[in-house]
Amino acid sequence: MFVITADQVDSRSGSDLVVGALRDLAETIPAPILAAERTVGDEFQLLLTDHAEALDVILRLTRSDHWSVGCGVGTVHLPLPNTIREASGPAFVAARTAVDRAKKRPTRFALDGGANDVPTRDAEALVDLLLILRSRRSPEGWELDDLLATGMSQADAASALGITPQAVSLRARAAELRADRLARKPLERILQRLDTLESTASGGHP
Fold it and tell me: Which GO molecular function annotation, any one, does this entry have (predicted)?
């Protein structure tokens, strides 16, 4: 399973962003195993079993500079409680270790997979590469990315933006949108394998 812990960056000098983040996650990830909740201060957690959803949450939260994001991979204690604040297990310990480390990393992301050190480091390094690529994207590139994410074609996006299809192609290339899309499925599979390794290492039990 995947526990994601997000801690707001420099929360003392800015407004509380947790409520907005929880609302966004409720809209985009409608059925997590345990819904995102504020756990303490300006921090929140959620529990997922789906590797694609885990990567999506990581990418959503790291899009801005507002969050340090830790992802813990492992088992959790069963039966699950009603709220994530009452949940526990190795994945939660891993997520705490990860978010503490994320606060000191340039990408503000860290992954912890328990005993599987090498697969975890490999997965973290590849997520880092994608995050670095995305950090260089211009506001115009993000604007196009958001339109294409709704299912629009590049021609439709060009019309919506009031620019030529050629300009859209140039913007997509500058934003590395194709590389971003192509990287996601392999990263999802890597996270899935890491989750399988953790489950195997624990004997399939919490």
Answer: DNA binding
For residue 76, the enclosing domain spans 2-115+194-201
Asked whether 73 and 113 are in contact (CB, 8 A), the reply is yes
For the chain, the domain total comes to 1
Query: What residues of the chain score a pLDDT lower than 70?
Result: 202-206
Q: Which residues are CB-contacts of 110 (< 8 A; sequence separation ≥ 6)?
A: 69, 70, 71, 97, 98, 99, 101, 102, 124
Please state, rounded to an integer, the average pLDDT across all residues of the chain: 94
pTM over 0.85: yes
Q: Residue 145: inside a domain, yes or no?
A: no
The reply to whether omega before 79 is within 30° of 0 (cis) is yes
Residue 151 lies in a domain: no
